[in-house]
Every structure is written in structure tokens, then in C-alpha cells.
């Protein structure tokens, strides 16, 4: 039975490490793309738990999968395998280029595994001097010390002492800089096929093609961080499938479990063979509960109708945001793809993305930011058209309150 203790926002300041600054309201219940706080106030969810709640809150298929598995088996560790993990791995390999799967608990862990595999492969095949990792400024790959160093935002990695070495950051979409820098000492290029935290930046076709060509030329591996873009978010099951190139290693998490923590690294048999027994592991990775839920999520998200629906909903968002902009002249452009969209603020509104987020909250709408100048939307992939319309109406009112 749940405790009767009254939980209020002040308790956060009393008991939690202060590395977050959460909103005042505390959600207590969710259904579909609606959320309610302890006071009974209703919110429309355009945030999706940062691109996680791909089927909304408490989707019946997820609830059923979790309930059913919770009465069978919760945990085994990697000393044994389990049925949900094997079913999910099989399904993921059928949906993409990969032959092999490593399960983790988060995007950072999936990326950590990807980076370790790339380094191990290069050392095994070419020798220890082939160890450089190229990544991109404003990129984000997680909060472990290795992944946060590879991520291209120094504010997140500075102040923790010496960083893992041989990591180079170049400008995203700068083909010339990449051509000039890459060498046979490069072991991998790690990139998001659409930068999320860095401001919802899409890659140019030339850039993506050049990255793949240069990796092939210099025997470097291409790692796609699809933690935020994967599992239907862009309208393809994985974003690489809409870009015309194939990575060597792919990481996925966030919406893979629809809200239940799970991550995965996907790769080829040839590369996977370099992670022999004992070289990497995870106590919780491949947890039966997480894998059962993720299988239910993947079954729905991979359906062609769901993916087509993402593109339909993108059009509704773009149309609605354009109408809002025609009234208030606040956005310089709408960026992104599918249901990972960013409304970039124009010169007059620089630095005010969080103001928009807070004003939206006052109107009963949950949105995100991607840096100080971009309002980010990452709602459920199956959000109803009515919820989109009502949410955009709340955003209109929020912006009106800031203009007044």
C-alpha cells in the first residue's frame, strides 16, 4: 500500500542531490498524452519524458506486458539469458542492419558499449595507435565520463578532472573540417543522425554521405547515436533508414522501453565478435521486465501505420506552429523531423526558451527546450489529433502571455 505521506516540491530540495531544477508541479497520474498533478490539474504532454513516452502514458499494451511478465520472472543477471531478451533481440535485428544486440539500462550505457567496442575492434585489428574518436560540437551522448567527454558540450564534461583522451570535436555539418582532420588513426566517428540536445539540427545529405565515405576510406567505424531519434521518432524505425546510409554500430534507448529503462547497442556479427566473454557486461542489462515491455513497444512502433502516423502528426505540428508564428513572430524556423521538432527562437527572443516552457506549464502544456534558444517537442508517436490541436492552443496562449 502506498505511503500516505504528503509529497510536495519542497521535499526535493530536502532529500535530492541538487543537479536538477524540476518544475513546481509533481505529476501523479498519466493516461495517453494527458498528465495530472497532485492538485488535479490536467496537462497535455508534448515533452514525452524527453522523447521516451513514445506510446504515451500507461498504454494498455505496455501495462499488459509488464503485468504478465511481473508474475513470471523479474531478474536473472547475465549468468543466464531469458526469453523476453531473446525475443526482443531477434525483433530488433529483423528491423535493422544489425545481427547482434547488447542490452543495457540507458542511452549512456548503450553509447559506452558502442565506444568500447569501437576502441576494442581498432586495437585488435589495427593496433593501439588507432584510437581517435571524432564526435561533433553540441552533440550529446550521455553522462558517464566517457560519453560526456565524447559529447560536444564542455559545460557537461568540465570540472571532473582529467578526461578520457584522444577525442576530437568538429563542427556538425562541416564537410571540409571532417575531410581535413580524419586520418588512419581515427577508430570511429560518433554522431547523432539529428542532433537533439544541441538544438534539433538535421544533417545535410552531403555531410551524412561524406561521413560514411570517409569512415570506409580510413577503416573507421561509424557509430550512430539513435538514443533520441530511434524507435519511430523521425518516421522511420531508425533515423539512418531515412538518410540512405548504414552505420556500423547503433545505440538505442529512450523510447525503446516507452518509459521502462532499457538501452541497447546493435552491431554486426563481425564487430560483435570482438567483445568476447568478460570484456563487457551489465548486471541488469536484458532484464526480463524491461525486455517484455520493450517488445510490446516495438511491436506497435514498427507497424507501418504507426510510422506513417508520425509523419502525419509532424505536418499538423508544423502547420500549427506556423500559424502561431504568423501571429507572434517568435520563431526563426521549425527544425527536425517526425516528432522530434524544435522551434528556434528568432533574434528578439534569444535566451527565452525556458520562459516559453514555464509559460506553457502555466497553461497546462508540457514542452521541452534544446538549449536556451529552441523550444523542443517530442510527444507520443500516437498522440491524438485533438490533443495536438488543444496543446497548440495552449502554446498560443502561453506565448500571448509573454508578449503582453
UniProtKB/TrEMBL annotation:
GO terms for molecular function: identical protein binding; N2-acetyl-L-ornithine:2-oxoglutarate 5-aminotransferase activity; pyridoxal phosphate binding. It is found in: Cytoplasm. Its main location: cytoplasm. GO terms for cellular component: cytoplasm. N(2)-acetyl-L-ornithine binds at residues 143, 282. Keywords: Amino-acid biosynthesis, Aminotransferase, Arginine biosynthesis, Cytoplasm, Pyridoxal phosphate, Transferase. Binds 1 pyridoxal phosphate per subunit. Its cofactor is pyridoxal 5'-phosphate. Pyridoxal 5'-phosphate binds at residues 107-108, 140, 225-228, 283. Gene3D superfamilies: Aspartate Aminotransferase, domain 1, Type I PLP-dependent aspartate aminotransferase-like (Major domain). InterPro entries: Ac/SucOrn_transaminase_bac, AcOrn/SuccOrn_fam, Aminotrans_3, Aminotrans_3_PPA_site, Class-III_PLP-dep_AT, PyrdxlP-dep_Trfase, PyrdxlP-dep_Trfase_major, PyrdxlP-dep_Trfase_small. GO terms for biological process: L-arginine biosynthetic process. It catalyses: N(2)-acetyl-L-ornithine + 2-oxoglutarate = N-acetyl-L-glutamate 5-semialdehyde + L-glutamate. Its EC number is 2.6.1.11. Pathway: Amino-acid biosynthesis; L-arginine biosynthesis; N(2)-acetyl-L-ornithine from L-glutamate: step 4/4. The modification N6-(pyridoxal phosphate)lysine is found at residue 254. The keyword Ribonucleoprotein does not apply. HAMAP family: ArgD_aminotrans_3. Belongs to the class-III pyridoxal-phosphate-dependent aminotransferase family. ArgD subfamily. May also have succinyldiaminopimelate aminotransferase activity, thus carrying out the corresponding step in lysine biosynthesis. Homodimer. NCBIfam families: arg_catab_astC, argD, PRK01278.1, PRK05093.1, PRK12381.1. This is Acetylornithine aminotransferase.
Amino acid at each position: 500500500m502506498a505511503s500516505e505521506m504528503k509529497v510536495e516540491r519542497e521535499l526535493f530540495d530536502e532529500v535530492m542531490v541538487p543537479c536538477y531544477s524540476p518544475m513546481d508541479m509533481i505529476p501523479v497520474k498519466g493516461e495517453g498524452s494527458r498528465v495530472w498533478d497532485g492538485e488535479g490539474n490536467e496537462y497535455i504532454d508534448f515533452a514525452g519524458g524527453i522523447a521516451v513516452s513514445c506510446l504515451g502514458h500507461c498504454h494498455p499494451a505496455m501495462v499488459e506486458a509488464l503485468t504478465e511478465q511481473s508474475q513470471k520472472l523479474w531478474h536473472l543477471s547475465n549468468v543466464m539469458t531469458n526469453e523476453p531478451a531473446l525475443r526482443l533481440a531477434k525483433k530488433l535485428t529483423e528491423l535493422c542492419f544489425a545481427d547482434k544486440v547488447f542490452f543495457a539500462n540507458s542511452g549512456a550505457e548503450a553509447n559506452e558499449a558502442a565506444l568500447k567496442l569501437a576502441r576494442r575492434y581498432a586495437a585488435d585489428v589495427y593496433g593501439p595507435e588507432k584510437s581517435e574518436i571524432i564526435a561533433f560540437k553540441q552533440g550529446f551522448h550521455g553522462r558517464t565520463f566517457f560519453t560526456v567527454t565524447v559529447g560536444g558540450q564542455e559545460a557537461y564534461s568540465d570540472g571532473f578532472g582529467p578526461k578520457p583522451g584522444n577525442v576530437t570535436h568538429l563542427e556538425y555539418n562541416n564537410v571540409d573540417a571532417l575531410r581535413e582532420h580524419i586520418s588512419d588513426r581515427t577508430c570511429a566517428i560518433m554522431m547523432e543522425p539529428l542532433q537533439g540536445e544541441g538544438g534539433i539540427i538535421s544533417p545535410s545529405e552531403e555531410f551524412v554521405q561524406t561521413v560514411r565515405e570517409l569512415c570506409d576510406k580510413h577503416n573507421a567505424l561509424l557509430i550512430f547515436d539513435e538514443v533520441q531519434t530511434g524507435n519511430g521518432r523521425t518516421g522511420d524505425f531508425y533515423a539512418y533508414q531515412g538518410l540512405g546510409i548504414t552505420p556500423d554500430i547503433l545505440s538505442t534507448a529512450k523510447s525503446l522501453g516507452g518509459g521502462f529503462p532499457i538501452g541497447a547497442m546493435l552491431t554486426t556479427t563481425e564487430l560483435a565478435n570482438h567483445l568476447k566473454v568478460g570484456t563487457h557486461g551489465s548486471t541488469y542489462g536484458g532484464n526480463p521486465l524491461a525486455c517484455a515491455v520493450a517488445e510490446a513497444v516495438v511491436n506497435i512502433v514498427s507497424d507501418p501505420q504507426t510510422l506513417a502516423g508520425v509523419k502525419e502528426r509532424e505536418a499538423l505540428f508544423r502547420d500549427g506552429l506556423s500559424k502561431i508564428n504568423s501571429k507572434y513572430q517568435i520563431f526563426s524556423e521549425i527544425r527536425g523531423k517526425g516528432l522530434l521538432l524544435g522551434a528556434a527562437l528568432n533574434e528578439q527572443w534569444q535566451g527565452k526558451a525556458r520562459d516559453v516552457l514555464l509559460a506553457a506549464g502555466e497553461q497546462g502544456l508540457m514542452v521541452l527546450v534544446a538549449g536556451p534558444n529552441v523550444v523542443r517537442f517530442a510527444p507520443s508517436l500516437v498522440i491524438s489529433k485533438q490533443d495536438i490541436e488543444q496543446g497548440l492552443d495552449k502554446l498560443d496562449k502561453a506565448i500571448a502571455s509573454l508578449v503582453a
